[in-house]
């Protein structure tokens, strides 16, 4: 199950060579139901994993999300709330190979809606092994929400993955109970820890500290450079193959989905790194949260360079 408190309708505009402060011509646009947990669920569904998605969804524009869930075969357990889900603007520049994000804060959440969502999480059957808490927190939700839910979910015996940022990540990383899987990007981890990580050794040390405090896998993504993946016994760096980029939106979400699928399949760290990196690389060749065909993913996974990081000591 994935949890998205602050989903978004992503309006992706393709504008090659656009200039800030100028009138620009766009070559195309499309709108997709998005948000980090929504994207993770969509990618897992593409892989063939059974998945449910929950969170808070505005009633006024729920149709695109409902269509996505129906088309992908994702079980829709979202709590409907009054109002419209926010829109996120993504400006893709194919000539530079980059994406600019403009994200609105989202709907203000009532105590009643939040309690309904928490009841949904508490009532999940034992067969729901993994719960992924994803994305930003909307107005009205305290920064400690994820940290508190991690503790409750782990008490239930769930495997908890966390992909968030800002104060929500800081609160989760300083809590007594950490998620089993933590996937920040390098900038999110620096912000949460309150200091820069300027060398590979410093990134590794930060990840190792989270492992010592109770996490089982820490994956620190670093854009096109790759990702560091650390467990209690191993640490590897996975470097992605070169691909033709359509949009980098959702690349981190695809990596989370890959790591979750690897956990469900019991893969070792190297195989998990290859799968997660192939998911991420494959997703950026598409607009929206979609995976390429399985054969293409297998080819990408074979091209991922997985190198041992500094050996870990007890």
Automatic annotation (TrEMBL):
Its EC number is 2.7.1.56. It is an enzyme of class 2 (transferase). Keywords: ATP-binding, Kinase, Nucleotide-binding, Transferase. Residues 14-291 form the Carbohydrate kinase PfkB domain. Pfam families: PfkB. One of its GO terms (biological process) is carbohydrate catabolic process. It comes from the Bacteria. InterPro entries: 1-PFruKinase, Carboh/pur_kinase_PfkB_CS, PfkB_dom, Ribokinase-like, Tagatose/fructose_Pkinase. GO terms for cellular component: cytosol. It catalyses: beta-D-fructose 1-phosphate + ATP = beta-D-fructose 1,6-bisphosphate + ADP + H(+). GO terms for molecular function: 1-phosphofructokinase activity; ATP binding. Belongs to the carbohydrate kinase PfkB family. NCBIfam families: 1-PFK, pfkB. Catalyzes the ATP-dependent phosphorylation of fructose-l-phosphate to fructose-l,6-bisphosphate. This is 1-phosphofructokinase. It comes from Deinococcus xianganensis.
